Amino acid sequence: xxxGIKLWSSNPVKYVDKSEFADFIEVLPRSERSLDKLAxxxxxxxxxxxHELFGFSPIHNxxxxxKLLDQAVGAAKKLKAGLIIMHTGLVEEEPDxxxxxxxxxxxxxxxxxxxxxxxxxxxxxPKAAFDIEKGKxxxxxxxxxxxxxxxxxxAGFCLDFEHAAIAAHQLGIDYKRFVAGxxxxxxxxxxxxxxRLNTRVYSKGHHQSIFEGAIDPDFxxxxxxxxNKPVCLETPVDIEQRKKEVEFLKxxxx
Length: 254
Ligand SMILES: [Zn+2]
Prior knowledge:
It is built from ten helices and ten strands. The protein has helices at residues 14-17, 32-39, 62-78, 97-111, 143-153, 161-171, 175-183, 202-205, 217-227, 239-251; strands at 3-8, 24-28, 45-48, 83-86, 90-91, 118-122, 137-138, 156-160, 189-192, 231-233. Helix 2 links the parallel strand 2 (24-28) and strand 3.
């Protein structure tokens, strides 16, 4: 099982140089110059499409979303990355079933423009969990909607454990049962971080260490080991802490 770490291409490049302990680096592309620096380092990369916080929302702004996706595909080519991970975007108002279908169609239309690498679509959660999201909503967080979207796009599935924890919490479903449902979509890649569900402060709740927060690390480890697909840590950019997380997932020592 490969375990990688997430970085933005704008993070200092020392984090790449000091991360031999990780099997790959997932990059959220920012400037061309920062990507050039990464390209000179012969590491294995995956790419994350710039998300909602950068304006990604196919249903509300196809042009902007297309631009962000194209930027990610360009980065994938430059870094010879085979996997491209994409969200489904935010929606402005609480969506009804008809709106969800329309929004998913917009995502599918966009997904079909990708002609390089393997596109993976990531699960989200129903509605804003943190202050920074300003009361927005999301689509494609449950088994049924994801299954349909994966079917019409032919894309693969990225299971984000943190998003699943927020979704299960908001829907009032047991977390392990909820994840078991999503596992039936045969994820090809995992995103992993700890999450605190009792705060609305983004920096305190979101993307915590896997040893902190609401998700049981042993349950996650067991699940990803069985699946044997790449796992990307979206935990704080802290080399020593991440080393411990990788070691735990691979060998079981915290
Ligand atoms: Zn993501």
